[in-house]
Amino acid sequence: MSFIPLNITGEQIADIQAQGLKWTVSHAYNNSPYYKRKLEDAGCRPEDIKGLDDLENLPFTDKHDFLEDYPFPLRAAPMSDIVRIHGSSGTTGKRKILCYTKEDVDNWANIFARCYELAGVTKMDRVQIAVGYGLWTAGVGFQNGCERFGAMAVPLGPANVDMHIDMLLDLESTVFCATASMGLLMSEEIEKRKLMDKIKLKTIILGAERHSAPMRKRIQEITGVKHIHDIYGMTELYGPGTGLDCAEHAGIHYWADYFIFEVIDPVTLKPLPVGEEGELVVTTLKKQGTPLIRYRTHDVTRLIPGACACGNPFPRHARISGRTDDMFIFRAVNIYPSQIDHILGGIGGVGSEYQIHLNQDADGRDYMNIRVERTNGAVAGEDNGLADQVSGQIRKKLMVRSRVEIVDYGNLPRTEKKSKRVFDNRSS
Q1: Which of 19, 160, 366, 400 lies 20 to 30 Å (CA to CA) from residue 305?
Q2: Helix axes of 337-345 and 213-223: crossing angle, nearest 10 degrees
Q3: Sign, CA torsion 242/245/247/251
Q4: Quick one: 350 and 414 in the same domain?
Q5: What's the rounded Cα separation, in Å, for the pair 13 and 257?
Q6: Are residues 102 and 201 in the same domain?
């Protein structure tokens, strides 16, 4: 059984999106008092939505809507139909609480099963899940999708390194699902214990945080896996599983029969042409509990034109390069951590781990320190001006000066969660 409708055409996807858009607006308007007010304030009613050309007339939804309508924001189904809730981490304030009906849970499992299929997973695989459970959507999303697909789930969560090593060896897990930080942590532990020839991993699926090419390369070198796949998703969009990059690794195929993806200019809020980078905006087509209309994800990406060489008919977007809200301003220059990622990835001799420290001197002038690991096995004193090379490339590409410190491999902290890259110690 294939979960991916490989015979679907672009015309059929467009028709599904048009019908889904009309349903979502009508469903939200008729079942959510908050959405009804929001749509009426924007001069929009369900009967005004005739097709995809009307999408731009709809108001955006953003995180402030979740705060204003807390604790069950944007709910558009009766409480008797809500079978589950999930929530965001709440690191920037109140958690975003999402309501799920039974059909929402089923749809989420189905699209996640598509991701496993696209990654080449089979029913004979053993899928070790190393992402968090609980209110966070990740663990249960990976598990439900795995079970719906029909492979064996090994649901450890972040757990501890020893337990993960035991399961990799004893159960001979073939697929490992984790954050990129956890993937690196486990890979280095496998290397430290000299277990490279004893594990049976063939595929790794990484999500929840962006990661650099050097990090992927390092994980792949240690584990020997053929493919490392990037999965996309967020709590507001069911959770992880909205799309995955195929074996071509030429963009993330997203399930356009469940979502409409737009890319907008985050300043003008106008849609950008296909191929231009901007902020991803998503409209759901089938969500009952918490539908989303033009939700501003604040993730930075671009839509990729043309067909993929893999033959999958679903459209693609580029890997997430950053977030509009993790940008920092240094000496009047807007900088994304992903730009530092990209620069470091092009310099030989540096590893994947780095930290950006922003400080002020006694006169109140900003300065930036960047701590970067050297590659595994490299020896201090043999860097041949590596720090100057890094700072020179940053100045050339970003037009700012930085102080670069090269530290030993493994010197920067590892985590089973998301790595913190930017430490802003400047006074406001």
Answers
A1: 19
A2: 60
A3: positive
A4: yes
A5: 6
A6: yes
Lookup: tokens for 254: 């997203």
**What is the spatial distance between Cα 391 and Cα 193, in angstroms, rounded to a whole number?**
35
The whole domain housing 75 covers 1-324
Domain endpoint, select from 292, 324, 356: 324
Q: What is the mean pLDDT of residues 401-421?
A: 79
Specify whether 342 is located in the same domain as 297: no
Nearest C-alpha neighbor of 288 from the set 77, 20, 31, 78: 77
Same domain, 84 and 100: yes
Dump pLDDT digits (tens) for 244-283: 999 999 999 999 999 999 999 988 999 999 999 999 999 9
Q: pLDDT per residue over 295-332, tens digit each? A: 999 999 999 999 999 999 999 999 988 777 677 777 76
- Identify the helix (H) or strand (E) that includes residue 298: strand 295-301
The number of residues in the chain equals: 428
Distances from the Cα of 259 to the Cαs of 37, 88, 284, in angstroms? Answer: 23, 20, 5
Strands ordered across the beta sheet of 350-360: 403-407, 366-374, 350-360, 422-424
Cβ contact 135:98 at 8 Å: no
Q: Is the pLDDT of residue 92 over 60?
A: no
Contact 331, 301 (CB under 8 A): no
Other C-beta atoms lying within 10 Å of the C-beta of residue 75: 24
CB-CB neighbours of 192 under 10 Å: 11
pTM metric for this prediction: 0.81
Query: Which of 240, 250, 204, 218 minimizes the C-alpha distance to 88?
Result: 240
Average pLDDT over the chain reads: 90
Place of tokens 């400047």: 426
Structure tokens at 223: 């584990």
**Each residue's pLDDT tens digit, 232-250:** 998 999 999 999 999 999 9
Which backbone phi and psi does 109 adopt, to 5 degrees?
-60, -40
Looking at residue 418, its pLDDT comes to 66
Q: What CATH number should be reported for the domain holding residue 200?
A: 3.40.50.12780
pLDDT, tens digit (0-9, with 9 covering 90-100), for 141-162: 999 999 999 999 999 998 789 9
Residue 30 has pLDDT above 80, yes or no: yes
In this structure, the answer to whether residues 316 and 344 fall within a common structural domain is no
Examine the domain organization and report whether 394 and 256 are in the same domain. Answer: no
Domain-ending residue, one of 324, 359, 378: 324
